[in-house]
Amino acid sequence: MNHLFFVFGASLLVVALTGAAAQQYLRSRRSSDATWEDLLGRLEPIDREKIATVALDVIAENGERRQSDDAYSLEPEAIWQLLGGLEGLEAMERNCRVLVELAAYVQRWHPEAVVVAEQLRLNAREIEWHVSRLTGAAQTGNLQATFADYAQRAVAIYYMMTRHVLDLYEQVSFPELTQLRQAI
Amino acid sequence: MYLSGFQLFFWATAFAAHLLLLAVIWRRGRAASFPVFTGLIAFYIARSVALFLIWRFVHQNTQSNYYYTALALAIVDEAIQLFVFYELATHVFCPTGVWAKDVKRAFVWIVAGSVLLATILTWLAAPEVKLSVQSLMLRSNFFSSALMSELFVGIMWLSATAGLPWKTHVARIAQGFGIYSIVSLILETINNYFGLQNSADVYNAANHVRSLVYLGCVGYWIVTLWQEAPAPRELPDAMLMQIYTLQRRVEYDLVRIRNWRRS
């Protein structure tokens, strides 16, 4: 009986590992071989004006938290509309991955940029966490109570990430800066 | 003691391939980045020499001397491979010199889960054998290949999930180990299924396939470690300072936004 379990378990393990290894290999290859055009092509269209409206409701241009009376004036419904609901947030989450790869792209020629790329990666993970909380809340029917807080936080981080990626490209005088400005 | 023509061919080819790989590592200055991997290749060369000398010149109880030495060296080999795994993991998960905060716990879980799963499957294995030492050998080979393949696929998955990129040479070394471990796992599953009770034909055929795959991996390492990664461009000190300032700003922004309370 043990013999049968062994064959079944080991075969399952081989199939799972082979499938996972092939998938991760293709995924990492797509990322490491990505050209500049590939990366820009993977950015999903997001209305940057709307992102800025949601983000600048709570932070100033320099990233400082806004203390004035008109801060936090957007109602949750308005935030939902501006972002295009959960789908809009998920598109933003996918774009975060591309922003991290854009930082890694600079790192190919300037290894010193690793410190910024790593910090941007941690920011992207934070956004993923916020979006996963919202997805979880949507499944349990608690989305309304948590949406504004998590969504606006995620958007503020995303907004600052786009600014920082542009700063990085500017600081290393990367020739593709103009194209990047138009894309994000 | 009798060694087949294929065994002698593999012995000589692997010895020459390891020498060539070590020369490539040395010539291209990779030893500083991968000291444990370099040590493993040096160990393989020393092992080939030691086993050859025992086979060729130690006449008394030659067979038992050869097998016990090979067994002891296989344990050392497994231990060094685990250190190579850790060395590659630190290259991926310590991009700035310290472990990335978000992967530490997942990494520990991957290691613990891999050991547990490999142990359970090894415990379930019951190969039919003539001698108990053969069962020990088949099951320990299975455990080793299951553990290594789980660990390598595990860190590939974790790095992709966390969005951590692989440097060129780290990725190539890990790919070689990953492919070899998965092929070994398939072959060891077959070996444990058929056992050694009736015939050693399946076991010998599986060993031949494994040896050829291993030679392919060493060839892959020789070629890829010889190739240079994209050359970095020099940055002036002022730009470097700006990059560090930017990194602090990105970090500061995240902490600030994290600490908000929406009124």
Give the % helix of chain B.
over 70%
Summing up helix and strand content along with how strands pair, one would put the structural category of chain B as mainly alpha
- Uncertain runs of chain A are none
Specify Rg of chain B, calculated over alpha carbons: 23 Å
Number of helices of chain A: 8
| Major sheet details of chain B | none
User: How would the global form of chain A be characterised?
Assistant: flat
Task: Name the largest protein-protein interface in this structure.
Answer: A-B, 64 and 59 residues
- Given the structure, what is the number of helices of chain B? 8
Report helical residue fraction of chain A: over 70%
Q: What layout of secondary structure does this protein have?
A:
The complex is a heterodimer of chains A (184) and B (263).
Chain A: H1 2-32, H2 36-42, H3 48-55, H4 76-83, H5 85-109, H6 114-140, H7 143-171, H8 177-183
Helix pairs in contact in A: 2-5, 3-7, 4-5, 4-7, 5-6, 5-7, 6-7
Chain B: H1 5-27, H2 35-57, H3 62-93, H4 104-124, H5 132-162, H6 168-194, H7 201-226, H8 237-258
